[in-house]
Known about the structure:
Layout: H1 2-16, E1 30-35, H2 43-49, E2 54-57, H3 63-66, H4 76-87, E3 91-99, H5 105-108, H6 112-129, E4 136-141, H7 159-163, H8 167-178, E5 183-188, H9 196-210, E6 217-220, E7 223-225, H10 232-245, E8 248-257, H11 264-277, E9 282-287, H12 314-322, H13 336-341, H14 350-355, E10 370-372, E11 386-391, E12 394-398
Parallel strand pairs: 1-2, 1-9, 2-3, 3-4, 4-5, 5-6, 6-8, 7-8, 8-9
Antiparallel strand pairs: 10-12, 11-12
Helix pairs in contact: 6-8, 10-11, 11-12
Amino acid sequence: MRIVTVLPILSLISSAFAYESLKSHANGIKIGVAGNTIKFNNRAYVDAMSNFNYMVAENGCKLAAIQNRRGSYNFNDCDAHLSKAKELGMSFRGHCLIWHAHPPSWFESLRGNDLKQAIVDHITTVLKHYDGKIDAWDVVNEAIDDSSNGSQWKMRNSFLYQNVPDFIDIAFKTARSVSPSTKLFYNDYNTEGIYGKSEAVFNFVKDLKSRNIPIDGVGLQYHVSTRTYPEYSKINNLISRYCSLGVEVHITEMDVKVDGNESTQSKVYTEALKACLNNSCCKAFLVWGVGDNDSWLGSSAKALLFDSSYQPKAAYNALLQTLGGNGGSNNNNNNNNNNNNNNNNNNNNNNNNNNNNNNGNGSCAGLWAQCGGTGFNGPSCCSQGTCKKLNDYYSQCQN
Length: 399
């Protein structure tokens, strides 16, 4: 009886940890992943996430999640992300304090000094709440217009810029005064060396530094595909130039949409990591989601390091080898069946974890959870709020 009881347990343990973790070979660099509390009750999801040493919340720490009503701060979701990170031995990155997209209606409707004060109040309250708990924050997110090219950067004509033209300066100065030890980042997309916006953002950051705006780093989001991606020489040179500015670099939201040749995905991921490792100012490398089914691009994009069953893909093993690990030990071995059948250590709970995106409130998604998009197979109704389309790939339950 003892043998019968013990062997399945040993089988579970060996299958759950049959591949090396990225964090075990990180050697000082932060290897991170975007998490979402709606998946924290899925054991396979958490097991996959535990291979990283750095976490960022996909949505839970944004202004709309924390201060959906003016002056009423709800840190529950952001706190839950931070708590899970601590449980898994991960440090935590804050994303993001000020962003023009998907704001609460009260915030977007403010004008002039009222909006300026709301910016100051939000940054002050959030940074005080997380003082000493979060080591870096994206202070401002995606403020440069996509049409920017070279030295001629152009501010996005958002309600923020229209009403408080110097909102970026105000945001960084406020953040520094409230939390002097927190590293302060500007974060943006199309900044990895493919488009003219890459050079524009570089010169924008250079301008902030020249005016003594307290910026510590830049986040390169790195949303690319197997068809459109930067060559190693370009991203390596770009990061090197940021090092020369005296700022830290984080690759913050990497995913690689499979558009044609899936084998190219490993190359794109590894060249980005190699460029980061090759430059001393690049301190963090994060992917934007755990498994393919968690991606904002939809599961059909196959954009992440784990498949939809949370098994490591070739790209995961390629990154592991780049860090000095062996790789390849669990991609197609016989342990897959054990992992697939025991995602939650209880087969009777599988339906709950697969169909319940709101931590137990029936079959509808919870507030701020995904409720639609190309390739999304989860619930399309919301237990709170309404389902709002953000883009072709992602709809979200919002108030």
